[in-house]
Automatic annotation (TrEMBL):
Coiled-coil parts of chain: 90-128
UniProt keyword Transmembrane, yes or no: yes
Keywords: Coiled coil, Membrane, Transmembrane, Transmembrane helix
Chain segments annotated as transmembrane: 7-26
Name assigned to this protein: Uncharacterized protein
Superkingdom of the source species: Eukaryota
Length: 128
């Protein structure tokens, strides 16, 4: 209880001060005329409209930035996809090139063996 009593005293003191301020404000003589209230209302409405306009401007800027960011993201995705496709195409092209080189080597060996057979046949024909 020893630690709570200063807190309770402080809380009661704040409540008493709050009530005193409230009653002081309540007892103020309201000498504001109806014209002054109308001027205050107009000023408040003007400030409110300006705040709404500024809010709309910021919302428009936000929407434009979101649109630009989305457009950039879509372009980035397209570039990435085309890059991946080019890599895949390059890989398949390399595979085709390797296969064609092997086939070319086999054909060169076959041409060489056919040349040897032809030479052998020519040699046989010339000997007979």
């Amino acid at each position: 209880m020893g630690g709570r009593s200063p807190i309770l005293v402080g809380l009661v003191l704040v409540m008493v001060l709050g009530c005193a301020i409230y009653f002081r404000l309540w007892t103020i003589d309201y000498t504001i005329s109806s014209d002054e209230t109308e001027i205050l209302r107009r000023q408040f409405d003007l400030a409110n409209r300006e705040a709404m306009d500024e809010s709309a401007e910021w919302r428009l800027k936000y929407d434009e930035e979101v649109e630009r960011a989305t457009k950039c993201l879509n372009e980035l995705i397209k570039v990435k996809e085309s890059s991946e496709k080019k890599v895949e195409d390059a890989a398949s092209t390399n595979q085709k090139l390797a296969m064609l080189q092997k086939e070319n080597m086999a054909l060169l060996e076959r041409v060489e063996s056919l040349k040897q057979e032809l030479e052998a046949e020519k040699l046989k024909c010339s000997l007979q």
